[in-house]
Structure formats: structure tokens, C-alpha cells
Description:
alpha/beta; 15 strands; seven-stranded parallel β-sheet; 16% strand
Amino acid sequence: MELYVWRIVGVLVFTVCLGFAREVKRYTPDWKSLDSRPLPAWFDEAKFGVFLHWGVFSVPSFGSEWFWWHWQGEKQHAYVDFMNRNYPPGFTYADFAPQFTAEFFDPDSWADLFQAAGAKYVVLTTKHHEGFTNWGSNVSWNWNSMDTGPHRDLVGDLGAAIRKRNLYYGVYHSMLEWFNPLYVQDKSSGFKTQNFVFGKTLPELVDLVQRYKPDLIWSDGDWEGPAEYWHSREFLAWLYNDSPIKDKVVVNDRWCNNCSCHHGGYYNCADKYKPGTLPDHKWEMCTSIDPYSWGYRRNMRVSDLMDVPSILKELVQTVCFGGNYLLNVGPTKDGMIAPIFQERLLDVGRWLKVNGEAIYGSKPWRVQMDNSTGIIWYTLRKSFVYAVFANWPANNTLEIPSPKSTPNTNVTMLGVPQLLKWKPSKPQGIVVQLPVLTQSTLPSKILWTLKLENIS
């Protein structure tokens, strides 16, 4: 193991140093250099992705994907009581692993669902903080999906199905593992030792890159240790300079205890991050249809979940402020996506089929939203401005305050073929006469989009 670790370190150091001898753009292992790397264009154009939290925590499916920590790390009463009532004395978290069977997992069916949902990228948890890997990691002996539980390569099987549909594939990977003895020892040393990093985290990251060639690495579990401990700058320099995905890979900002919203690729900043003004850096909002858990929760109720209007409003507001929207569902231990989650995703897909022109490949406009006459969100794509509104006025007359019209201005509604009548407002803005439609002829049931041409 020691020889293997130092080979990895040697490769990282050698490839970083080699950059000084080449004329092509090379990135050095410091934040100034790494942060200067342009973000591959596909990510900003994609706008909408699906997030999947799946692992051994899907077996108890109680509370959240932090089950193990809440049960044995914090000893929260609800979790201790749940175990006492439902499992025999001496039952360990590892005993859940054989029940993580994934027997109904059909990666093609999942990929069809995500494509129908309008997602352009999919991010799967390859390893959460529990340390269980959803592929046959050779540094996670007997705690991976090949040795126990499903006995199959979940990461590889889903990746193949996703790519057959020309979607982008991302891998979530937790840097820390709550109860791994190597991590516990490193932490107790004040992160002066790096046995866990060189024996577990780095080998797994390199393996994921070389084996699956992901389009995105969604890093997490970084918050306890500094970049020097995680060796994250050296890894990113290798990733950007010499890895097989150096030209296309996108990463987030969770690479050290002070990295979020400061360093890396695009910014997550925090779970469910929602800025109130237009950021000057590409960002992503990750959220979950079940607000109480990222993993599947057996005791969830329909009233707990985000409804479709809430999801769509959040998606549109995220995009109008320049962000991507990553919407999470938690599959079951046997490999199913609950029908209520499928329904939500398919409803988003139906809306995007009509209104996606205002979302995919769009940019923020000079005004992101108006709320003087009901909320209106704006996006810009090519030379067109799109105005998305949620409240259909009773008199079919919609005032849009921010556009400056010209004599050549045209207004249409996505999903409705004819031009709409409009008149200018003072000092600026336009008033649009919306079409008279029945419930059956409405292009969307909620949130409608006006396409404005020749607007300044």
C-alpha cells in the first residue's frame, strides 16, 4: 500500500513539474493558477441536471443520508430509538450493506427518465461520507458495490446508459469518511498526517477519472481539512494538465475547508445556495425534491415534497441569475425511483419541452427579474429576451416593466404560433395582450414564456 501511495504522489508531482518545460498552457498547484482555468462551455449551456444520492443509507432510509453519523456519531435519540425498535442488539451499520441489493436497478430506464425530464447532466453519488463505493474501488475492500450488496458496478452501468443518450455524466465523491480509522487518525493529529488522503481519497479520485472519464467531479466532504491536507491543488493541477478528461471536465468548489465560494471551478457555496443578486462567477444550486433528505426516506409524505410550481420557479430564478439547477432524487435500496419523484421529473420535462428555449444556453439579461406587477423572470438567448411569468392576469393583459421597445419589436408566446399584440408603456416597458386560450390549448399549465424580439 505504501509503495502504491507514493507512486500516485510521484505521478502528481511529476506531471505538475513537467508543466514548466512545455509551451502549452499549464496549471500550477496554486489557487491563482487553478482558478484561472476557463470553465468548459457545456456546463453553462446545460442549465439543468439531476442529482442522485444512493448508497447503504438507502437501506434504513430513515431520517436522511447522514443516518450513520446521527445514529452512532451524535447518538441522536430518534435514530437510536429507531434502531432499538427495529433491529436486534449488536446490529451494525455494515450489516445494512447486504440489503443494498439494487435488484430492480435498470440504468436504461433511469436514463430515459432523466432525458424525458429535460436534464442535460446527471450526477451520481459514487461514495458518500459513509465510505461505501458504488464501484469496485480497490482501496475500499469489502465496502463496495462489487464485493457486497448489488455485486455490480453501479457507477459504470449508469454512466454507459447516460452517455448513450448524449447526456453529460458527473460523479459525486466525498473526500472524508466519518468512521474510517485512517481518517479518524489523521483528524486526531490535527491533519498533520495524510494516511487517509494517500491511502483512500486520492487513489479513488484518480481511479474514477481514469476508469469512467466523467464530465463533472462533484466534490464534497471537504470542510474539516485544509487544502494542504487534502492535496487538492495537486490533484486539480493533474486533472487540468494531464488527465484523460483535462479539456472537458468541470469541478465544483468543495476542495478544502475554506474553498466554497472561493476556489475551484463553478461555485456551490452551500447546499440550496440561492443568491439574491447576479453573481460574477458561474454557480449551481443543488436542492432536493424531498427537502428533508437527499437520500430516499421511507416515511416521507406527499405534503413534505416540493410541488411542481415550486420546482419550476426555483429553476427559472436560478437560471435568470446565471446558475445551473441540480435537482436531487433518492433511489430506493432495490434500485427504484419512487413514482412521486418520477412524476415530478416528468412534469419538469413537459414544461422544458415547451419553454426550454428560454433556459438552455441562455445568459442573464440586464435585468434578472421584476416583481412590481407580479414576478417576471428574464433570460437572454442570442438576440432574444425571454420573460417568464407565473400569474396569468384575469384581463389577459400583462405589463412587463423592464424592456425598451422599438418599432420593430415582436412578441410571441412559446408554444403559441401567432404574434401577440402589444403597446409601449411609459417611461419604459410594454403591455402585452395575451392570447385567449382554454385549459386544453394552454402551452403550459404553469409558468408561461414570452419571447421578445428587437428589444433593448
